[in-house]
Amino acid sequence: MRFLLALLSLLIVLPVQAQLVPQSKDQLRLSYAPLVKATAPAVVNVYTRKVVQARAASPLFNDPFFRQFFGDQFAQGMPRERIQRSLGSGVLMSADGVVVTNQHVINDSDEITVILADKREFEAKIVGEDPRTDLAVLKIETRGEKLPYLQMGDSDALEVGDLVMAIGNPFGVGQTVTTGIVSALARTTVGITDYQFFIQTDAAINPGNSGGALVTMDGKLAGINSAIYSKDGGSNGIGFAIPSGMVKATLASILSTGHAVRPWFGATGQEVTADIAQNLKLPRPFGVLIAQLAADGPAEKAGLKRGDVVLAVGPHEVSDPQALRFRIATLGVGASANLKVLRQGREMTVSVPLTAPPEKPARDATEVGGRNPFTGSTVANLNPALAEELGIDSLAQGVIVLSLKRGTIAHQVGLRPGDIVEKVNGDSISLVSELKKAVQQGANGWVIQVKREGRSLSLRVGGG
């Protein structure tokens, strides 16, 4: 009985935690408004204008009666010019009018107009563009006026669950702000650009948001909104942004040289699978197994060997080849990549000085003439710099078909841009000069071996 009384007295004495009514406006109000006021003025609208050729179809010329006399030459109408307009978003990155946006927003544009949040309009010029990262840098003339801009944030400091804010111009309705969280990091299988390493967010991103800002809660740029996963064109809660680390490196390169120059690592590798991890006695599958090294390339000179497993670049673990390429690309030319490497069961550190991809051998881009299977094509010697521009294996060698003219012999025999010529009539081809010599000797026909999308194909062409 005494125990029950004591327990009752204890229950009466203990304070009850109850919900309290807000005692002030500050307690009642929770708002993103201060963050929006600080960041939204630095996000701009980007309008583009392009003149395209179109044919004005007339029902008159499709009438069978008129086609008796005029044939089909007017059936599709007379060609005329048409103005194609598109819109997107961009981010001011400096007070003197440097703007970063997506490359696909301004691709092939004849005119670009940047409209600030306060409705002022400026004509913009392209400083440089990089389709491989889907980034472009614009410049507007401010006549000395200082404009609001966003500071670059550290995308490596982001964590899944962090709050973020997306600012842009969806559907052309005007500047719009949405909020959400970082729902995933280091997405490497999205298939949007050549450098796969995206921030995923559930902040609503829609058409027109491309090129806009993904902002952290301290008002810094986390990334450039680039794409959405959607079946109907609207936001389904899965949006992707290019991390600020890549934006920073690409911006610096374009402002310095007018185009994006990324470091050359000089090695390629493959993902460490569960079986490989078990053989290497790794606790789990991660890292990149080095498969090939360029002779006298940065990786080989630094002491990296085939069979080494790259586990990390600096403090950042790498899970697959895409992650390794991203980490190398964001370091910049002239930096050193400090790699954690596993070699024969022992961990070690290898420092790789990063250089610009070399132009060796010289490209020697040549339009092939005469009468042979390559007539009408433009070919060039592959080198690391050209391979980087084209987005192919940086260790690829040989002669590559850059372009074809429609209706030419090269087009008719089935050659395609991107084909790498391996042999002509059994002779190995490594230089444009060797290709020109080989086709001149094929009067009785040619057997051409090319590599296309990783597969070797043979094309047989009769003599003329």
Description:
It is a single chain. With 464 residues, this protein is an alpha+beta fold. The chain has four domains: 40-140, Thrombin, subunit H (Beta Barrel); 151-257, Thrombin, subunit H (Beta Barrel); 267-353, PDZ domain (Pdz3 Domain), CATH 2.30.42; 366-462, Roll (Pdz3 Domain), CATH 2.30.42. It is 20% helix and 36% strand. The protein has 13 helices and 26 strands. The protein has helices at residues 2-13, 25-28, 33-39, 59-62, 64-70, 103-106, 244-257, 274-279, 298-301, 321-331, 384-390, 409-412, 432-440; strands at 43-56, 78-92, 98-101, 111-115, 121-130, 135-140, 151-152, 163-168, 176-187, 198-201, 213-216, 220-228, 239-243, 267-271, 288-293, 309-313, 316-317, 336-343, 346-353, 366-367, 377-381, 399-404, 420-424, 427-428, 445-452, 455-462. Strands 20, 21, 22, 23, 24, 25 and 26 form a seven-stranded antiparallel beta sheet that branches. A hairpin with a 2-residue loop joins strand 16 and strand 17 (316-317).
Looking at this protein, list some descriptive labels.
single chain, 464 residues, alpha+beta, Thrombin, subunit H, Pdz3 Domain, 4 domains, 7-stranded antiparallel β-sheet, 6-stranded antiparallel barrel, 13 helices, globular, disordered N terminus
Strand content: 35-45%
* The CATH homology group name of the largest domain: Trypsin-like serine proteases
Global Rg: 29 Å
Mean pLDDT comes to 84
As an assembly, this protein is: single chain
Helix/strand structural class: alpha+beta
Low-pLDDT parts are 1-17, 64-70
The helix content, as a percent range, equals: 10-25%
Give the CA-CA distance, first to last residue: 116 Å
Query: Could you say what the CATH architecture of the largest domain is?
Result: Beta Barrel
Tally of separate helices: 13
Q: CATH topology of the largest domain, what is it called?
A: Thrombin, subunit H
CATH class of the largest domain: Mainly Beta
Number of strands: 26
